[in-house]
């Protein structure tokens, strides 16, 4: 007997015996619900025996028997009523606990998000994949599923999703392709660092989604609720079902603003900002211009995050403005990084350290932002240095730029596609799912150990496209991804350290060293970032024109 909590009010377990009742009473359970019919197993105690033992222990017991595999909508409704009436906490049991977990999932489907239900049951060891459509449908059996079907379905209309759609269209004439994304606006997120530095206007980084979806690709403007890979289907909010021949998963990454106590309440005011949001990047520049003295903090959460250099880019561009304005001497800069190094690829660190020293910035490693009090201008960091107890420290500020904690989207983390850490589980070379042969993933959401950048997605899109086309024609994967990522580190206005690297930190320069030496700050790299990359993004990458992104062939065995 091992009760698993799935909510504050309910735990579920496999079959219990009368001898277990005293221990359950000691654990604080005040009621029991039996969901296993009497006589289902030869060694199974009857409900009458359970009820008698529960009565002695002062626990209420109820009998709601469910035939295995046949949980009806009425059963779920009755279970919900029992949980309302009975004193809690409650233990529900059946042979394995699955029927009880299913009853709970359906009974709360109208009041809890699907992702929360799936996360709770998954954590307890129960897979609700078989009833996910009913959960999405508010706990009732869908009567009209309204299925649509496409050759290729792409989840996400960001840089990765639109690029791979365009690359597929160029290779597979006549394929029925659909992109599922609820957003009206598509953003060029690499430009937000430049907005926060006063170089770009925020409006130039946004375009309507409809103007970017490749002609001939269907756009399903809806949010995804769940996956049914065993049925080659995805379920949308509202329980609409879309079936696919092949699936590409690239919804991006979740910015967990709520992961820092007090952060949501103070963002965009009290001198707390972030270039990770379109509406806040202009506020960053406003704060930078206004600050003449005091302490400026820049934070970086634990990895993985998208564009790992962005937190320090904000610091460099801000410091450069203060340097040029003659006020840097009156501003104390602190970079609080949850990690233990300035940048993950050591070849670029010497050049970056020159600017850290130029701007007299204090590096605080193993510092993870956990709370903010905007009106009081105070922040708290958990300092977790190796072989030392975690210490919470308080730091005052006059301006703070925050990079939020980041995770895979909720509907990914609770899905059958995810690894133990919640990311889509792919082969890092072919980007094909390790379990489901007709699913691929790219962009920030998958678990290959590469930098999560738009430059990485630019290289991944042709790999996925070529391998899907090969699969359609019955061939093995033909293209492989080498882990390429690029991070143009804007160390000052007019100069950039162009970090380009692949798996294992191997340098992957795109240009000859005489033109751009990526380990040094150069004007050429700045021109690339400021003038060349934006049109390449809008006019080439999102249109399937794979400039300098030709896929590498799979090595022969």
TrEMBL record:
Keywords per UniProt: Transferase
GO molecular function ontology, one term from the record: transferase activity
Beta-lactamase hydrolase-like protein phosphatase-like domain: residues covered: 4-109
Pfam families named in the record: BLH_phosphatase, Pyr_redox_2
Domain FAD/NAD(P)-binding positions: 150-270
The keyword Transmembrane is assigned to this record: no
Matching InterPro entries: BLH_phosphatase-like, FAD/NAD-bd_sf, FAD/NAD-binding_dom, Prot-tyrosine_phosphatase-like, Sulphide_quinone_reductase
Xref: NCBIfam families: TIGR01244 family sulfur transferase
Protein name as it appears in the record: TIGR01244 family sulfur transferase
Protein species of origin: Meridianimarinicoccus marinus
């Amino acid at each position: 007997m091992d009760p698993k909590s799935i909510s504050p009010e309910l735990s579920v377990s496999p079959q219990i015996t009368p001898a277990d009742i005293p221990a359950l009473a000691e654990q604080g359970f005040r009621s029991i619900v039996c969901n296993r019919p009497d006589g289902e197993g030869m060694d199974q105690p009857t409900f009458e025996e359970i009820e008698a033992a529960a009565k002695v222990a002062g626990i209420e017991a109820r009998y709601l028997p469910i035939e295995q595999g046949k949980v009806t909508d009425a059963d779920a409704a009755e279970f919900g009523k029992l949980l309302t009436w009975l004193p809690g906490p409650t233990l529900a049991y059946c042979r394995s606990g699955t029927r009880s977990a299913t009853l709970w999932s359906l009974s709360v489907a109208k009041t809890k998000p699907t992702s929360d239900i799936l996360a709770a049951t998954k954590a307890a060891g129960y897979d609700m994949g078989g009833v996910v459509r009913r959960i999405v449908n508010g706990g009732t059996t869908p009567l009209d599923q309204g299925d649509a079907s496409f050759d290729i379905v792409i989840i996400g209309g960001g840089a990765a999703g639109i690029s791979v759609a365009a690359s597929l269209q160029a290779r597979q004439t006549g394929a029925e392709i659909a992109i599922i994304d609820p957003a009206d606006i598509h953003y060029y997120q690499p430009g937000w660092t430049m907005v926060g530095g006063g170089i770009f206007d925020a409006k130039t980084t946004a375009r309507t989604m409809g103007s970017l979806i490749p002609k001939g690709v269907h756009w399903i403007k809806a949010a995804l609720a769940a996956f049914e890979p065993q049925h080659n289907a995805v379920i949308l909010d509202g329980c609409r079902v879309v079936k696919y021949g092949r699936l590409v998963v690239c919804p991006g990454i979740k910015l967990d603003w709520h992961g820092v106590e007090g952060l949501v309440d103070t963002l965009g005011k009290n001198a707390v900002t972030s270039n990770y949001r379109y509406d806040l990047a202009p506020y960053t520049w406003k704060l930078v211009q206004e600050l003449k003295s005091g302490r400026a903090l820049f934070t970086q959460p634990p990895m993985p995050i998208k564009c790992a250099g962005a937190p320090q880019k904000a610091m460099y561009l801000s410091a450069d403005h203060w340097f040029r304005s003659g006020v840097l001497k009156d501003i104390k800069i602190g970079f609080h990084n949850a990690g233990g190094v300035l940048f993950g690829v050591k070849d670029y660190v010497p050049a970056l350290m020159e600017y850290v020293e130029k701007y007299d910035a204090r590096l605080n490693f193993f510092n993870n932002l956990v709370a903010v009090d905007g009106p009081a201008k105070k922040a708290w960091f958990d300092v977790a240095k190796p072989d030392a107890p975690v210490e919470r420290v308080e730091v005052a500020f006059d301006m703070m730029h925050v990079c939020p904690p980041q995770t895979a989207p909720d509907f990914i983390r609770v899905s059958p596609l995810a690894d133990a850490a919640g990311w889509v589980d792919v082969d890092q070379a072919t980007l094909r799912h390790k379990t489901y042969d007709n699913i691929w993933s790219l962009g920030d959401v998958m678990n290959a150990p590469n930098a999560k950048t738009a430059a990485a997605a630019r290289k991944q899109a042709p790999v996925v496209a070529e391998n899907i086309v090969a699969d359609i024609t019955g061939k093995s994967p033909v293209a492989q991804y080498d882990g390429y990522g690029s991070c143009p580190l804007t160390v000052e206005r007019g100069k950039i350290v162009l970090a380009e690297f692949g798996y294992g930190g191997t340098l992957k320069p795109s240009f000859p060293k005489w033109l751009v030496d990526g380990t040094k700050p150069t004007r050429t790299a700045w021109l690339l970032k400021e003038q060349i990359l934006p049109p390449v993004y809008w006019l080439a990458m999102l249109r399937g024109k794979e400039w300098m992104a030709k896929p590498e062939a799979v090595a022969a065995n």
